[in-house]
């Protein structure tokens, strides 16, 4: 390993938002990093960090390479801090949002003028033998309390460089839609519409065996299974497929496909099983991926916070889903009763061992979000929804479960903090 390199790892970084000051930077071999415009930017920015609200973490140096950028050419650089909200911007500053993605994290120690060693290590040593390829995205310098200054040889910083699997995986780590299987489509549509305080869309009840809610990130699909024969597969949710034929070949190697792809115009899908017997769907759509902003008259938001997958051996299941989606396994959390598989956006993908550990005879399909737990609880009681047990309160959330007319168990939760 190159001098000054402490560690290299592959991690998933969730979507993040920053506020900071941006400049256009032109690299020069004649000017060392300790004397360039980026170094002069940081003291100006550090003096004004106190003007930024909702700061949520360390400092970020962000290199933004647009499509017009060429190696060695000018690019945008931003000195910034992570924020939980960007509702007000100090004068001369800007906000930026970056989607989740895979990164190679190179942790280095040394003075700033030696930073080039870390980049050469990444490009010349690590990347060629890693099984990954560089992807377009933001390059991140992360500074925290370990960084003592540009001239201090004990300073530690992290370089987050965007990567992807060298062999493209035809499945996205995103839950495009969550299924709830019902026997009476109209009854279910009316029940869930009332839950969200939304009107029933009559035209959707006349368009086939499903009724759907265009929720942000992950749609909710009520499926009557009327078109699925006597033994419907009943998938829990769908994963987005980049190419359905490539996904089918891939799943023949990684999982248990239950059929060849079905094609219906601009839609193609197939069902498959995971090692615990859960049925899932891979789905490709030729239509634009759009989300509606639903405004309901209910404290229960028309938004899916997460979908659950019942598993028995968490480490094995977490490893399987991570490999399936080309993600690193989070070793620290791989033995927890709930494991969150990283997703690009939409509902969280939650592997849940609690049903197995508790010997429960039920499953929980998903959880819906509320920003006012007591108001949500009062709403369901007022409208006669059936509660499944008593509300529960934990250190990080409060929740209650409902039973829909078909006995499907749905959780409503408010996160704390």
UniProtKB/TrEMBL annotation:
<dbReference type="InterPro" id="IPR029068">
    <property type="entry name" value="Glyas_Bleomycin-R_OHBP_Dase"/>
</dbReference>
<dbReference type="InterPro" id="IPR004360">
    <property type="entry name" value="Glyas_Fos-R_dOase_dom"/>
</dbReference>
<dbReference type="InterPro" id="IPR037523">
    <property type="entry name" value="VOC_core"/>
</dbReference>
<feature type="domain" description="VOC">
    <location>
        <begin position="174"/>
        <end position="285"/>
    </location>
</feature>
<dbReference type="Pfam" id="PF00903">
    <property type="entry name" value="Glyoxalase"/>
</dbReference>
<dbReference type="InterPro" id="IPR029441">
    <property type="entry name" value="Cass2"/>
</dbReference>
<dbReference type="Pfam" id="PF14526">
    <property type="entry name" value="Cass2"/>
</dbReference>
<protein>
    <submittedName>
        <fullName>GyrI-like domain-containing protein</fullName>
    </submittedName>
</protein>
<dbReference type="InterPro" id="IPR010499">
    <property type="entry name" value="AraC_E-bd"/>
</dbReference>
<feature type="domain" description="VOC">
    <location>
        <begin position="303"/>
        <end position="415"/>
    </location>
</feature>
<dbReference type="InterPro" id="IPR053182">
    <property type="entry name" value="YobU-like_regulator"/>
</dbReference>
<dbReference type="InterPro" id="IPR011256">
    <property type="entry name" value="Reg_factor_effector_dom_sf"/>
</dbReference>
């Amino acid at each position: 390993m190159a001098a000054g390199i402490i560690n290299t790892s592959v991690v998933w970084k969730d979507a993040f938002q920053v506020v900071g000051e941006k400049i256009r930077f032109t690299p020069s071999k004649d000017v060392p990093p300790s004397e360039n415009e980026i170094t002069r930017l940081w003291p100006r920015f550090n003096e004004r960090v106190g003007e930024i609200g909702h700061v949520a973490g360390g400092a970020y140096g962000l290199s933004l390479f647009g499509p017009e950028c060429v190696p060695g050419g000018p690019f945008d650089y931003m000195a910034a801090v992570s924020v939980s909200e960007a509702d007000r911007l100090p004068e001369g500053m800007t906000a930026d949002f970056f989607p989740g993605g895979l990164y190679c994290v190179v942790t280095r120690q040394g003075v700033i003028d030696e930073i080039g060693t870390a980049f050469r290590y990444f490009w010349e040593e690590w990347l060629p033998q890693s099984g990954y390829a560089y992807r377009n995205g933001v390059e991140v310098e992360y500074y925290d309390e370990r960084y003592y200054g540009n001239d201090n040889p004990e300073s530690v910083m992290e370089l987050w460089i965007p990567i992807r699997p060298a062999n493209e995986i035809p499945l996205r780590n995103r839950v495009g839609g969550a299924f709830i299987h019902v026997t009476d489509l109209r009854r279910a549509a009316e029940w869930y519409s009332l839950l969200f305080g939304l009107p029933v869309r009559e035209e959707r009840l006349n368009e086939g065996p499903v009724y759907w809610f265009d929720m942000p990130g992950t749609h909710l699909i009520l499926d009557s299974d009327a078109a699925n024969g006597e033994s419907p597969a009943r998938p829990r949710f769908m994963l987005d497929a980049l190419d359905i034929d490539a996904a089918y070949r891939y799943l023949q190697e990684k999982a248990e496909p239950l059929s060849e792809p079905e094609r219906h115009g601009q839609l193609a899908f197939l069902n498959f099983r995971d090692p615990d017997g859960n049925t899932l769907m891979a789905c490709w759509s030729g239509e634009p991926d759009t989300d509606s902003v639903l405004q309901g008259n209910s404290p229960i938001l028309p938004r899916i916070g997460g979908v659950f997958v019942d598993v028995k051996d968490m480490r094995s299941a977490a490893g399987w889903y991570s490999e399936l989606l080309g993600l690193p396994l989070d070793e620290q959390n791989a033995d927890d009763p709930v494991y969150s598989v990283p997703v690009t956006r939409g509902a969280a993908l939650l592997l849940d061992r609690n049903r197995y550990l508790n010997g429960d005879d039920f499953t929980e399909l998903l959880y819906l979000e509320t920003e006012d737990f007591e108001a949500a609880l009062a709403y369901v009681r007022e409208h006669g929804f059936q509660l499944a047990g008593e509300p529960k309160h934990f250190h990080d959330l409060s929740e209650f479960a409902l039973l829909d007319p078909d006995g499907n168990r749905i959780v409503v939760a408010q996160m704390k903090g």
